[in-house]
Amino acid sequence: MLNFEYQNPTKILFGKGQIAKISHEIPSDARTLIVYGGGSVIANGTMDLVRKALVGRKLYEFGGIEPNPDYEILMHAVEMVQKERINYLLAVGGGSVIDGAKFISVAVGWELGDPWEILNNHGKGIRNAIPFGCVLTLPATGSEMNQHAVISRKNRQVSLPSASGSSQGNAGAMSMQSSIESEKLTFSNNKVFPQFAVLDPVATFSLPKKQIANGVASAFCHVIEQYLTYPIKANLQDRFAESILLTLLDDGIKSYQEPEDYDSRANLMWCATMALNGLIGAGVPQDWSTHAIGHELTALFDLDHAQTLAIVLPATMHVRREEKKEKLLQYAERIWGIRGDDHDAVIQQAIQKTVEFFESLGLATKLSDYNIHADQLPEVSVKLLKHGMTGIGERGSVTLEICEEILRTAL
Ligand code: NZQ
Predict the structure, then answer these.
(1) Which of 391, 275, 393 is nearest to 324 (CA)?
(2) Using CA positions, which residue lies closest to atom 28 of ligand 1?
(3) What parts of the chain have a pLDDT lower than 50?
(4) How far is CA 219 from the centre of its chain?
């Protein structure tokens, strides 16, 4: 039975030329910090368009936000915001830059100690946020129109004060070093919806094919996490989800094959936004176990986010085929046109089609393709346990043992 509240405050400016309008969205007296990544937006001319649109405004810039945005780097931006009394943020880039802006926006006013706690608290306790907008250059995450962010803390050594009078010689000196483990955690809060998002397909033409593939797979998997659960007679939600999947099969593939085709890129971009802006998930059961496992794979083995999804999703479908049977049969028929009395065979074919779809985008679907082998899987279990990922999925039925089975299936 459908029963939900849905609200999305982000204004969308969609299409070629829309970057020129951002001055209407940012208060004229704002002290704006433009945040960006490793320089792709400078190389492809997007930053020039942004600077032109905001000429005469008080602007500051902070670059270097990496894919899987790193807490330490973002904290440098937080210092800059405090020092320069910034009161508006503009993210120009992909999901990592936008997620980074979300974190900066709330870390500045965080009153409960170390801002990393925002992640440990999953976004609870946030009181203040600096308003921000974004110019998207990579259709994938949906971050441009949602209230979620994923932040990483990269593995590194830190110095701790030595214990005086140590009798351990060099070993004692070594013990001054302690390592911070790699982590990748999510937070959500309604205060981090962007105020506006510009979606200009032209700003994405410079994407390498690998990133287009990542974007298509990411959007596809976002839909699946909100669709491939169990039926609740939410017919319109199902049809919304299926329409995005079918459009991704057409325009996602076309966009991958013809990187400068405006229309297919525009459709891909809108699909990616609609896949995770809350609309298709309103009122329906949601899974997200593929993402939970995938985040640990990125933190441990440095795989791209979408690479992890292309590995974990088919294995999840296989291991949980009984639990997801009704929706898998619906998926098989409506997305792939497969039907028949032998339900096991139908489901198997639908899973195979999913694998072939990822592979047609150049994405590998096995852990071993990335040199990850059985002896490394216990590390993933330790992380899942540490993060409380022991009863996940739409019914809370995905135990650690099931996660392990999914990972073994994905080897
Ligand atoms: O760093 P720059 O120079 O900007 O280059 C980026 C980066 O190397 C490049 N790129 C972006 N736009 C480009 C471009 N290169 C050429 N031309 C352009 N127009 O692409 C690379 C990857 O960028 P990134 O932002 O990391 O990719 P994506 O958008 O896929 O974001 C991935 C991050 O988002 C998180 C992921 O976990 C990961 O950390 N997610 C966020 C979600 C959310 N906020 O709702 C949900 C997702 O499931 C996901 O977990």
Answers:
(1) 393
(2) 95
(3) 162-175
(4) 9
| pLDDT at residue 322, as a whole number | 98
Q: Ligand 1: which of 8, 40, 216, 291 to mutate, most ligand atoms within 8 Å of CB?
A: 40
The SS3 assignment for 272 reads helix
Domains plus CATH for the chain? 11-199 (3.40.50.1970), 208-409 (1.20.1090.10)
User: What are the φ/ψ torsions at residue 178 (nearest 5 degrees)?
Assistant: -130, 145
Q: For residues 373 and 174, give the distance between their C-alpha atoms in angstroms, rounded to a whole number.
A: 31
CA dist list (Å): 391 to 187, 207, 224, 333, 399: 19, 37, 19, 30, 5
pTM, two decimal places: 0.94
pLDDT in tens, 237-286: 999 999 999 999 999 999 999 999 999 999 999 999 999 999 999 999 99
Does residue 147 have its Cβ closer than 6 Å to ligand 1? no
Using alpha carbons, select from 59, 146, 141 the residue that is nearest to residue 94: 141
